[in-house]
Amino acid sequence: MDASGLRIALFSGNYNYVRDGANQALNRFVGYLLRQGAAVRVYSPTTDTPAFAPAGDLISTPSVPVPGRKEYRIPYAMSSRVRRDLKAFAPNLVHLSSPDPLGHRALSWARQHGLPTVASVHTRFETYPRYYGLAFLEPVIEGILRRFYRRCDAIVAPSESMAQLLREQRMSYDVGIWTRGIDREIFNPGRRDLGWRRSIGIYDDVPAIGFIGRLVMEKGLDVFSDTIDQLAARQVAHKVLVVGEGPAREWFQNRLPGAIFTGFQQGADLGRAVASMDMLFNPSVTETFGNVTLEAMACGVPTVAARATGSESLLSDRVTGRLIRPGAIGAFADALQDYCLNGDARGQAGAAAQTRAERNGWDQVNQALVDTYLRIIRQREQGMMPRSSPVP
Q1: Strands (E) located in the chain
Q2: How far apart are CA 137 and CA 127, in angstroms?
Q3: Which of 35, 42, 204, 231 lies 20 to 30 angstroms, CA to CA, from 222?
Q4: What CATH number matches the domain at 189-357, 3.10.180.10, 3.40.50.2000, 3.90.1140.10, 3.90.1150.10?
Q5: What residues does 209 pair with on adjacent strands?
Q6: pTM score over 0.85
Q7: pLDDT value at residue 132
Q8: Is 171 buried (19+), middle (13-18) or exposed (0-12) by CB count in 10 A?
Q9: Looking at the predicted structure, is the pLDDT value of residue 32 above 50?
Q10: How far apart are CA 390 and CA 392, in angstroms?
Q11: What are phi and psi of 13, to 5 degrees?
């Protein structure tokens, strides 16, 4: 079998109603599958105001808003309409991109019908409670995740560091890599625009420290703010440039009154904003890959990041950027100060980062997941079942 023989049922908790790195990767992948002649059916919550048009056929699933985060929805059931659609579509593999209630039901449905399943890991859900004063729940969530992933034939992670963590957590006996690609037409050093910087209040001789991403607390906004406070106390000249939107924007603006907030950017505008930074600061520990880090690297911008899953697979400390112990405010400030005061070091790290980013083309990384699909289907045809506890 080649890709044209694939019939993929993809289940997602957020395929296109709120834009993020995970669902943009999924949409790119579905587009790639369709170009290879595969058939794809996507099952996900929908809204009347989606963030972007979906790739492929999208079937709406029952869902409710997440308490306190109403922009997100929890798909809670596999309705009879979805079951009828699945039966008519007749997939030969089920892809699960979120361990939500619908994902659990889809996994049970696949096992009942003897279909292989592949799960993609997009975020470290077990780390989220710590940002809301509920850290004691992390072992419980990790246990739920383990039960989910070990019922799948295989799981794929976006970075080797995340894959190794999943192995250490005993999430699966079959952990592969589905990394992320970069659009070099959008993200490249040529997008840097000093005129645009001046228009938003950043002078040529003032280093711009960038933040890119959804403005939610689990992105490390508290660590970012505390670090910037230290730079200000040290009287290090800089300007903070925040690119993104989200429910914590008001909190973030109050913490960083001198920062420039551009709101959500996409396409060429996003490429211009990233390339116009002098460094990216990414203190988050929740990412499994770090799309924004790769985008900055492709633009020749060095990154100061938390030494965590994802970033460790992209960055080489003191070569393409800096890797700092998570939450180490003083060490983050030291690294940013060095880049602010040393333009040569900044330039050398940016050039090395750009060279490293050239490895990630979208077609190459998406074919790796297609190859995983084909391997899992072949193993099932040969009678091989998932190496996991026999959970029904």
Answers
A1: 7-11, 39-44, 57-60, 63-66, 69-75, 93-96, 117-120, 154-157, 175-177, 208-212, 239-243, 260-263, 279-282, 303-306, 321-324
A2: 9
A3: 204
A4: 3.40.50.2000
A5: 240, 279
A6: no
A7: 64
A8: buried
A9: yes
A10: 6
A11: -80, -15
